[in-house]
Design a protein that fits this description.
Length: about 160
């Protein structure tokens, strides 16, 4: 049989591409090393409970059209991710916001926060050669040390 497309992997992109191409009359062969569709967001039912086989995932979008599209395939729960970072007993809200910057430096305006970040970014004066230098060149030493470094080390070693 002749195919118009070969899709390797049936995660979000592969599965949706194959679905849309098929709707337009194209012949699509999807191959995946796993026996299931949905890639890393696959869930299986265990005693009536959907269990994330590869760990929980969050689908982010603020686009109503995209939200409606994905909900035709499965019911997604609305979720607001609002983690808190604990750095040596100091709690910081994430993602970064004015509360984070106020707690870290005592600043109260976006301009003051931007100025503080800009001061700290200047520590890196050459082209970054690793993740640490890249992070400091983008957000400064304080944010890197308190909110990025520990998480990155925990996540990736």
């Amino acid at each position: 049989m002749k195919y118009d497309y070969l899709v390797v992997g049936s995660g979000l992109y592969g599965a949706i591409f194959a679905h849309e191409a098929t709707k337009k009359g194209k012949k699509v062969l999807v191959v995946d090393k796993r026996p299931n569709i949905a890639g890393n967001i696959y869930t299986k039912e265990v005693e009536g409970i959907n269990v994330h086989e590869y760990g929980a995932h969050i689908f982010h979008t603020n686009n109503k059209k995209v939200w409606e599209y994905v909900n035709q395939f499965a019911e997604f729960n609305r979720f607001t991710n609002s983690p808190v970072a604990n750095y040596k007993g100091e709690l910081y809200s994430l993602p970064f916001n004015m509360y984070t910057f106020n707690k870290m430096w005592g600043v109260v305006t976006p301009e003051e926060a931007a100025q503080k970040i800009e001061e700290q970014r200047k520590e890196i004066t050459k082209e970054p050669t690793n993740l640490e230098e890249q992070a400091i060149s983008l957000v400064g030493r304080d944010i890197y040390e308190k909110l990025i470094k520990g998480y990155t080390e925990k996540q990736w070693g």
